[in-house]
Amino acid sequence: MTSAPLAARLTHVAGPLFFPVTAYGPDGAVDLDAFRAHVRSGIDAGAAAVFACCGTGEFHALTPEEFRLVVAAAVEETAGEVPVVAGAGYGTALAIQYAKLAEEAGADGLLAMPPYLVLADQEGLLGHYAALAAATGLETIVYQRDNAVFTPETVVALARTPGIIGLKDGYGDLDLMQRIISAVRTELPGQDFLYFNGLPTAELTGLAYRGIGVTLYSSAVFAFAPDIALAFYRALESGDDELANALLDHFYRPLVELRAKGRGYAVSLVKAAVRLEGLAVGDVRSPLTEPPAAHVEELAAIIERGRALLEKCGQEEAVSGERG
């Protein structure tokens, strides 16, 4: 855990947010050495933060003790270089238990995922996240998606809740997000409340979210191709529309279309890609399943095409520099 507040460290970042996969050994047990290597590679590549044991990290499949060990491993490996945020979910009592385990393991904050299965009203959702935020000293980011979709009024109430510092949107309704941002800005002028684009393969909607002022985003691609993810991030930051559009057209859109071919591919396809890059992180745990060989081959081709675009861009820049 670092001394600086999480909100302050995430307000101005210089790279994508890294959501590592959780590594398993041949026997199916958590492989902490492989996980540490995965986290270290992301930090060395330029990750702005590590979100451990979240959706991509198969939070749903981890026992409480495994969760604690994995979060602690992320904290040890980052050694304060970047903040570590841990997932927390299920019903209120279990979410609080996971939050306390994350605090014990040294995490800097929580990503509060939707409650398990139930369809709660706005009052119930607000009570759930307020209880979770009050249970520890960790700053909390609330994840909007599936059965946890908020009205602007509820987000204003969340923003007023001590310990809640932001909203990660995995729902994708830009009209709703604009109204949320406007409501918080109007009702709480001067308060810095963070917003994150949390859609799967968030880069595909990066330009749209930037249009309403949301620049922070989670990058599943960073887990297996940080060079491509960083190139896209920098293209957005610098206004390099040519490179951003080329990557959208020839890498991100094909990747999203492949992701749509299988259930659970937002996790299993990412894990397959990490293995393609040479790190043995094991298969996904049940009830998720592995993508078939044909889809893994297609994935490899998409990654190769993305890197070819970067190489082409680099060569063109070198030629332009020589001519200049």
Detailed description of the structure:
The protein is α/β, with parallel strands linked by helices and about 325 residues long. The chain is about 50% helix and about 10% strand. The protein is built from 12 helices and 8 strands. The protein has helices at about 5-10, 30-45, 65-80, 90-105, 120-135, 150-160, 175-185, 205-210, 225-240, 240-260, 265-275, 295-324, and strands spanning about 15-20, 50, 85-90, 110, 140-145, 165-170, 195, 215-220. It has an 8-stranded parallel β-barrel, surrounded by 5 helices. Helix 7 links the parallel strand 6 (about 165-170) and strand 7 (about 195). The N and C termini lie far apart (about 45 Å).
Note the topology.
Elements: H1 6-11, E1 17-18, H2 32-45, E2 49-52, H3 64-78, E3 84-88, H4 92-105, E4 109-112, H5 122-134, E5 139-144, H6 152-160, E6 164-169, H7 174-187, E7 194-197, H8 206-210, E8 216-219, H9 226-238, H10 241-259, H11 265-276, H12 293-323
Parallel strand pairs: 1-2, 1-8, 2-3, 3-4, 4-5, 5-6, 6-7, 7-8
Helix pairs in contact: 2-3, 3-4, 4-5, 6-7, 9-10, 10-12
